[in-house]
Amino acid sequence: MKAVVLRETGGPERLELADVPDPEPRDGEVVVRVRAAGINFLDLLVRKGQYAQQPELPLVPGVEVAGEVDGRRVIALPDAAYAELAVAREDSLVPLPDGASFEEGASFLMTYLTAYIPLTLQVRLREGGTVLVHAAAGGVGSAAVQLAKHLGARVIGTASSEEKRAFALEHGADEAYSYDEFAEHVRADVVVDPVGGDLVARSLKVLEPLGSHVLIGYAGGFWEDLSPALLVGRNVSMHGFYLGRLMRHRPELVQEAIGELMPLWESGAVRPVVGATFPLEQAADAHRLIEERKSVGKVVLVP
Hints:
With about 300 residues, the protein is of the alpha/beta class. About 30% of the residues lie in helices and about 25% in strands. Strands 3, 4, 5, 6, 7, 14 and 15 form a seven-stranded mixed beta sheet that branches. Helix 5 links the parallel strand 9 (about 155-160) and strand 10.
């Protein structure tokens, strides 16, 4: 089969299309014919050698697919997703809703679980509360905007360009600001933050008393060390969310969240946003688009 292989860490050019052996499923596993593979920011970190739990090389990147198994349209979170075939546990397969495209399917699980679990289980989000979503035009950001609106919140987004801020407004945000100006205009009960870096300290300062800041990524740079005194003095809290560890240690909780999310998609309350698609052989271009902060929504590879 054809697959994208990463043999050495580095820039997008390290991603190469190659012929590799077909995967062999073990007991309880099935082979998924991949129709679309979602690109997540963790894939970029793995490629650059900056992931917190860096896997051994060589490898086929990717952790999210939509495809077919014995005529069934499914979505799943397997390893080695940038390929024509991928192996997933049979009991982890999720039916792809009727009317949804494979590209949308490959854009759903990682982003919506990453937004939904913190918003429903980690923070106290009251009806009419304000949620500030950083990188609101991205995959996780656009999911967080939709879900926070569904949960009854007023949603404010940040993004790096006027076009991205317009995108956030189009997909449900009530207001949108640049990273330089949000602190002048926003008071929030919850901050959803895939950006990290120096944005963390600035975001804590816009939280209302008893507000919560959720750290889910560091696309803008690794998190700075902060003194607990800042949390105590402002009566705020900070939460961290890492879906991979939760899937290993609390799989039943993740499955329960999937069971709650799928009806929201099927009813039209939320819908994944596919910003761009690339063939497998252009995986480097797809990574480059994300790395240069030119993408919106989810970027997807199509075998």
